[in-house]
């Protein structure tokens, strides 16, 4: 969950999207200040990947998140099967729980569908959703089903449980902490570009991989929980909008800046042969749903050694700094550049 | 929450809506059987107004519900101010909590809006929502804000808490229990008819009252909690779709039938002078968001006496019966009629 939205169009029209982002940022800042609930039972309210609420006498806190997927904004019906949409709708919510180190427990599904959608589509939507739910042991407890005159809309609320009443927030990072990401960056965005070129099946193994990353992302709940249980991560979030948009959010919450090494980023280099720019996609492409987190410097070596081989690879991509702003620092001695929200400018 | 939807159009095209209802009923029955989660921690899953989940060691259970309002299906933008839509979106969710006897605690708001909607609209939406939230002591803990290319969509998830781990379900009724409703029936539907005739302001006090009932319904949380705390209600639900649709659901859950006395229904008789049929609206009109509940016969007199004067009026409208189906029984000795889902047929 965030009050800020996945920006598919960033690759097509960065300036338009930056405008939208700024508008949304501004509205959300205002809404948060003005309307966010405050109470001893709200451990974390709006402004992180999920909210954390405490109930009197309970051993664990609840972690609650919601995400909406709208046809023509977040997906094209022709690009996803019903089952893939079901999977993806739940996955984006579980990714928010993963980003807090929470364990998925329950979910609620609201589905608005045009009258022309056949029953079979609805059942397949729920099948795709149920398969991912089962893998993550989260249970369907209810929802809403409505006809819609305006395309397909899915809104899911996911409830997770803390482990020992702990959660990892965006705000816990300090200057000097080492930045990591899981998996590969820009792979889902490369998949989206293939869909835009109507290459919906993929001709090669890499193309199929990119399409899969876009259509059926895997929330990193196991990694998030492991990081929490082993006290490695000082701050964490999931990458829904790309590093250039998400890292500034993490830094802002932690009141730090960051330096990242573009050469070290786990880019999806196969996309180069499709005339895409893997680094641009890694920085600015959305929907990777990988985890971005920081580890205090003094435990970074221990963390790197202990990180389980069964998990997706983890890559050290930079550090948090006391000076604000995000700087891209090339290893080769090229001049450093500032990373702007939704893109990057030359350092001046 | 229910997997079944408010049917505004019932007044215009009952047959079309009955068809939609049957389709939705069928899909939802299937989804419930196939996909509903089962676990000791799920006290009540899909199939009631809200779900009830239990956390180890917690003193109270959580009651969770979600409802979606879609432009052009659930509302027309021209008919509601932003603040009224904010109020109504939360109200329909709180009404589900009221129907369980739960106390509202937290809510999460997902809002999809076209890019043409000004900031002011968004802020007024949240203001209207916040005012009702404050009256019911529920706190905003998060949400999602997205641009939409397909009209305005609101999905709210509300979390409530039980009182002494108790909730009132649809399923607790027995033959012989006395049926009651709060407030007036068919008032919101009369308001909707005025809007359809573009009488958006209302010329008389009654018209203004009807418009208010439609635009800014008052969830009956105080009545629901009082009924629970005093152990009066054997079963309960909120009236979102009208008695002719909702009472069969209550009866089906409780495995009973019902007899109702049309002459006793608290109809909104002012609507007669606007060339509307108050009884038809009371039976078939949606969105009253009043409570429908049953009280065991042996405590009905005590209940009627104890019912607080500060609450909206309560009316005895019939009884639950062991024979299935809903029968309309006139006091005057006219022949009884069967009430069909979404309308009524002559008894045969």
Features:
348 residues, disordered N terminus, 6-stranded mixed sheet, homodimer, globular, 8-stranded mixed sheet, alpha+beta, 9 helices, 23% strand, 33% helix, disordered C terminus
Provide the fold topology:
Two copies of one chain form a homodimer.
Chain A: H1 14-35, E1 42-44, E2 51-53, E3 62-70, H2 82-98, E4 103-113, H3 119-135, E5 139-147, E6 153-161, E7 178-182, H4 187-196, H5 205-215, H6 221-229, E8 235-238, H7 243-254, E9 257-260, H8 278-284, E10 291-295, H9 297-306, E11 314-321, E12 326-328, E13 337-340, E14 343-344
Parallel strand pairs in A: 4-5, 9-12
Antiparallel strand pairs in A: 1-2, 2-3, 3-6, 4-6, 7-10, 7-11, 8-10, 9-11, 12-13, 13-14
Helix pairs in contact in A: 2-3, 2-6, 4-5
Folded structure, characterized:
2 copies of one chain form a homodimer. Chain A has 348 residues and is an alpha+beta fold. Chain A contains 9 helices and 14 strands. In chain A, the strands form 2 sheets. The first copy, chain A, has an 8-stranded mixed sheet with strand order 8-10-7-11-9-12-13-14, sandwiched between helices. In chain A, strands 1-2-3-6-4-5 form a 6-stranded mixed sheet, with helices on one face. In chain A, a hairpin with a 2-residue loop joins β13 and β14. In chain A, α2 (82-98) runs parallel beside α6. Chain A is globular and about 60 Å long. The model of chain A is unreliable at 1-20 and 343-348 (pLDDT under 50). At the A-B interface, α1, β3, β4, α3 and β5 of A face α1, β3, β4, α3 and β5 of B.
């Amino acid at each position: 969950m965030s009050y800020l939205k996945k920006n598919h169009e960033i690759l097509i029209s960065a300036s338009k999207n930056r405008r939208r982002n700024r508008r949304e940022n501004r509205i959300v800042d205002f809404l948060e200040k003005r309307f966010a609930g405050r109470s001893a039972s709200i451990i974390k309210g709006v402004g992180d990947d999920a909210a954390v609420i405490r109930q009197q006498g309970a051993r664990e806190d609840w972690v609650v998140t919601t995400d909406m997927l709208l046809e023509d904004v977040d997906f094209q019906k022709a690009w996803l099967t019903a089952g893939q949409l079901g999977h993806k709708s739940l996955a984006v919510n579980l990714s928010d729980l993963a980003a807090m180190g929470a364990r998925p427990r329950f979910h609620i599904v609201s589905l608005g569908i045009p009258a022309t959608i056949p029953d079979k589509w609805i059942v397949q939507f729920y099948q795709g959703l149920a398969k991912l739910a089962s893998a993550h042991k989260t249970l369907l407890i209810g929802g809403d089903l409505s006809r819609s005159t305006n395309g397909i809309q899915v809104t899911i609320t996911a409830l997770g449980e803390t482990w020992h009443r702990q959660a990892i927030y965006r705000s816990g990072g300090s200057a000097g902490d080492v930045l990591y990401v899981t998996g590969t960056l820009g792979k889902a965005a490369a998949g989206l570009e293939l869909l835009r070129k109507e290459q919906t099946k993929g001709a090669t193994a890499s193309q199929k991989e990119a399409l899969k990353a876009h259509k059926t992302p895997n929330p990193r709940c196991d990694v998030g929980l492991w990081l929490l249980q082993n006290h490695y991560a000082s701050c964490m979030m999931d990458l829904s909008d790309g590093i250039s948009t998400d890292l500034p959010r993490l830094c802002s919450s932690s009141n730090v800046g960051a330096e990242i090494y573009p050469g070290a980023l786990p880019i999806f280099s196969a996309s180069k042969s499709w005339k895409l720019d893997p680094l641009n996609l890694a920085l600015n492409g959305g929907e990777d749903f990988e985890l971005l987190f920081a580890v205090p410097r003094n435990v970074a070596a221990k963390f790197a050694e202990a990180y389980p081989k069964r998990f997706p690879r983890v890559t050290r991509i930079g550090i948090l700094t006391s000076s604000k702003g995000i700087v891209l620092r090339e290893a080769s001695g090229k001049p450093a550049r500032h990373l702007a929200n939704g893109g990057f400018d030359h350092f001046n």
